[in-house]
Write a structure and sequence with these properties.
This protein is an alpha+beta fold and 174 residues long. Helices cover 13% and strands 28% of the residues. The strands form four sheets. It has a four-stranded antiparallel beta sheet with strand order 8-9-10-11, with no helix packed on it. The chain has a three-stranded antiparallel beta sheet with strand order 1-2-3, with no helix packed on it. It is globular, with a radius of gyration of 21 Å.
Length: 174
C-alpha cells in the first residue's frame, strides 16, 4: 500500500473564527480553541472596503462594486474597477459566479481594464475579462506539496530525508 503526503497529515479545519495568536507553535482561536500546531495554514477572508458604500457606486451582492465583464462599473460607461473591491463575473464557469478577489485575477484584470480604457477612448470594441484556470499549487511544509494542473493532473510530492530525489504520483483525469 502506497502512502500519500495528504493522508499522512493530521488536519483540523476551523471555520467562522479568527486567530487571536500564534506563538511558538501554540495557536489560540477567537472561539476559545487552543492547540499545538507544527504547521498553520491561515486564510484571511477578503471583504470589500466598507467605504465603498459612501461613493454612490452600484454594489453587488457581496458589497463589492458591481462590474460588467468588460470591467466597467454597471450603469457607468466611463467608470472602471478591478481587483479586491470589484465583483467581476466569472465567465469561465456557470452564470452567477464571481472571480475570487485575489492577486492573480487583479493582475490579469488590470491588463484588460487598461486595454478597454484605451479602446473606449478610441471608439473601439471592448473585451470581456475571462480567465482560464491553469491549476493550483499548495505547499504542505518543508519538502512537501500538492498540485492540480490544467484541472486534470493531480500531483503530490514528498522529498525524503536529505535526498534530492522527489517521489511524485500523477493522476490524469479528462
Amino acid at each position: 500500500m502506497r502512502s500519500h503526503v495528504m493522508a499522512q497529515l493530521t488536519i483540523e479545519v476551523h471555520l467562522e473564527t479568527s486567530m487571536e495568536s500564534c506563538v511558538e507553535q501554540h495557536v489560540v482561536l477567537a472561539n476559545g480553541v487552543e492547540m499545538a500546531a507544527s504547521m498553520i495554514v491561515w486564510t484571511a477572508s477578503v471583504c470589500p472596503n466598507p467605504t465603498l458604500a459612501h461613493f454612490g457606486l452600484p454594489l453587488g451582492s457581496r458589497g463589492d462594486v458591481d462590474i460588467l465583464p468588460t470591467l466597467q462599473v454597471r450603469g457607468l460607461d466611463h467608470v472602471w474597477a478591478a481587483g479586491d473591491n470589484a465583483q467581476v463575473p466569472d465567465l469561465a464557469v456557470e452564470e452567477g459566479a464571481w472571480c475570487p478577489p485575489d492577486a492573480h485575477h487583479a493582475v490579469r484584470q488590470a491588463t484588460v481594464l487598461a486595454d478597454n480604457v484605451i479602446a473606449a477612448l478610441r471608439g473601439r470594441p471592448l473585451k470581456e475579462y475571462q480567465h482560464k484556470n491553469l491549476g493550483a499549487v499548495v505547499g504542505l511544509g518543508l519538502h512537501k506539496g500538492a498540485a492540480i494542473l490544467f484541472n486534470r493532473i493531480k500531483l503530490e510530492v514528498a522529498r525524503r530525508g536529505g535526498s534530492t530525489a522527489c517521489t511524485a504520483a500523477a493522476v490524469c483525469r479528462r
